[in-house]
C-alpha cells in the first residue's frame, strides 16, 4: 500500500463514522475506499436534495419612467438551472425550502434617481438607491425561503425619475441561487 492510498483511507476513516472495511489484500484497498465513500455519502447526508437552482436574467431594453411599485420583468434569461425563474412574470418561485442568495443591479440614466426593492412575497428584504449619471447600483440578500414563495424586484412606491437603463454598456439584472 503506498502512502497516498493510506492517507486517503485514514482521512476517510476519520471524516464520517462506521463503514465496513475488508482488511487484507492490497488490491482491496481501492474497493474499501469506494465503499467508504458510498457509506459516507449516505451517512453524512444532510437531507438536502441534490437538485441545483440558479438563474441570471437581465432587461433587454430600457424602462422609461417605470413609476412606483413597478415589478421588473427581466426578459433575457442566460441561466435558469431548475427552471424556477419565469421571464414572463419576472418572478423566481422558490422550488424548495432553503437558504438562497439573490443579487440585482439597476442602472439609471444621467442625472436621475431610483430606489429598487427585492421582495419575498410582500416583504421587502433589501433595497438600493442610485442617483447620478449612468451609474449602476447592486443589492445582495441572503435569506431563508420556503417552497412556493415568490421573489422579485420592483421600484419603490415613491417612484424615482428617469429611465432604468439596460444595454451593452451596462445591464439591469437579477440573479439568484440555492446555497443550502
Automatic annotation (TrEMBL):
Signal peptide: 1-24
Keywords: Secreted, Signal
Gene3D superfamilies reported in the protein's UniProt record: 2.60.120.40
Domain C1q: 48-180
The keyword RNA-binding belongs to this UniProt entry's keyword annotation: no
Protein localization: Secreted
InterPro entries (UniProt xref): C1q_dom (IPR001073), Cerebellin_Synaptic_Org (IPR050822), Tumour_necrosis_fac-like_dom (IPR008983)
Tagged with keyword S-adenosyl-L-methionine: no
GO cellular component: extracellular region
Name of the protein: C1q domain-containing protein
